[in-house]
Amino acid sequence: MSADGIDRIVIVGASLAGLRAAEALRDEGFTGRLTLIGDEPVPAYDRPPLSKQVLLGQVTPDATALPHTRDIDAQWRLGVAATGLDLSRKAVLLADGTKVPFDKLLIATGTRARPWVNAAEAALEGVLTLRTADDAEHLARLLDARPQRVLIVGAGFTGSEIASACRERGLAVTVAERGQAPLVGALGGVVGDVAARLQRAHGVDLRCGVTVTSLEGDEAGRLCRAHLSDGTVLDADVAVIALGALRNTGWLEGSGLAAGPRGIAADAACRAFDHHGIATDDIFVAGDVARMPHALFGYQFLSLEHWGNAVEQARLAAHNMLADGPDRRPHLWIPAFWSSQFGVNIKSVGVPTMGEEVVVTQGSLEEGSFVAAYGHRGRVIAAVSFDHGRWLDFYTGLIESAAPFPPAFTGVDRPPPGTSTVPSGFPDPSVPSHGPTVTVSGYAPSERRITFTPAPA
């Protein structure tokens, strides 16, 4: 029995968040039995290189393994998926029919790629998604074969990074995006228009405002063409489906946890809510699958698909699993992410998707090197940079201090005269978009939009 009375901790999800949580538990002094469960048969690996260096042949998929910061002395159950959760008996059910009991549980099951809508078309040779190391290895082999044209369905960050790798390889690539511009779901239309110019300047056949209605195969079952909503028929021998991610919560259906397509609802200490909205004391969540309120963003529930968030949430969850109530800490990490595409380094801090307005504070959109600040209800909520990232720590400070929007500058590198705020240009939130890195749901406590109606006597 561990000194704190906890003998068995189970982590479902053996990728980045799961591994870092396991290491943090040992750092925090946990000496009991530790089990990590993962549906992939390989140890944890880094996913960001899969759409960049792996596709360019700079590294192999097996070189993306995540380094261990310490020995965690754990039992690894890899290659077997969790299929259910028995809350009353405190056990995780596995696909092989076994049960893994726990005293405390961390759920870090992350996301999976959204598949193509037609299963028969998705099974065509040359049609694939990119999420796992196997996916990246498969796509790299297809690109090595010099296809005549690569079709990318969706221009979020993954789709755009794949398009960049294809162009760097000298391959013809068409990107079909139902929104007005690439990255529009994550950064809005103003910045998305810059991303569109960037793609076209690098030879991408970018088609916005259209969808792919069907994929067609030849007699041998190989992809040969795609049909678009504008009536266009496009020859292509590789199609990468980049329509965003689905949170891995299906195995929790009927478990009693507040889990659904938007993730697992939790409090700021990473404690999962049950379906009554009560925070559990023995089940925690971390990483892409978590959905929790953030004090700096109006207590909105945020689901963050960020590498850094997975690491910070995992460490925090590990601490809070072992801590007494007064010693638990809230999750206050400022969302931040980066992307490299078409020779440009794109960085973001805060929650751009909450921004109603945007203003260019440094550089210029026309030159493609700038910082844009986003405003929400009169305060700075986020900032995005294209090849201008050295100032983002400053904008992080503005977000943390709820600085007024638009920001006032008295120092160097001030924006040009006449710069003004404009609508940020995000699509209608009721319409799914490709590639938001932060999903905002719930409501701010100050908004009285809920009416309680008692049940009839």
A few lines on this structure:
The chain is α/β, with parallel strands linked by helices.
Describe the structure.
By secondary structure, this protein is α/β, with parallel strands linked by helices. The protein has seven helices and 30 strands. It has a six-stranded mixed β-sheet with strand order 3-2-1-7-21-20, covered by helices on one side. A hairpin with a 4-residue loop joins strand 5 and strand 6 (99-101). Helix 1 (16-27) runs parallel beside helix 6 (307-322). Residues 442-455 have low confidence and may be disordered.
Key terms for this structure?
457 residues; alpha/beta; six-stranded mixed sheet; 7 helices; globular; disordered C terminus
Question: Which helices and strands, and how do they pair?
Answer:
Elements: E1 8-12, H1 16-27, E2 33-38, E3 75-78, E4 82-86, E5 91-94, E6 99-101, E7 104-107, E8 111-113, H2 119-122, E9 127-129, H3 133-144, E10 150-153, H4 157-168, E11 173-177, H5 184-201, E12 205-208, E13 212-217, E14 223-228, E15 233-235, E16 238-241, E17 245-247, E18 259-260, E19 263-265, E20 271-273, E21 279-285, E22 290-293, E23 301-304, H6 307-322, E24 336-341, E25 344-350, E26 357-364, E27 369-376, E28 379-386, H7 392-400, E29 422-423, E30 438-441
Parallel strand pairs: 1-2, 1-7, 2-3, 7-21, 9-16, 10-11, 10-16, 11-12, 19-22
Antiparallel strand pairs: 4-5, 5-6, 8-17, 13-14, 14-15, 18-19, 20-21, 22-23, 23-30, 24-25, 25-28, 26-27, 26-29, 27-28
Helix pairs in contact: 1-6
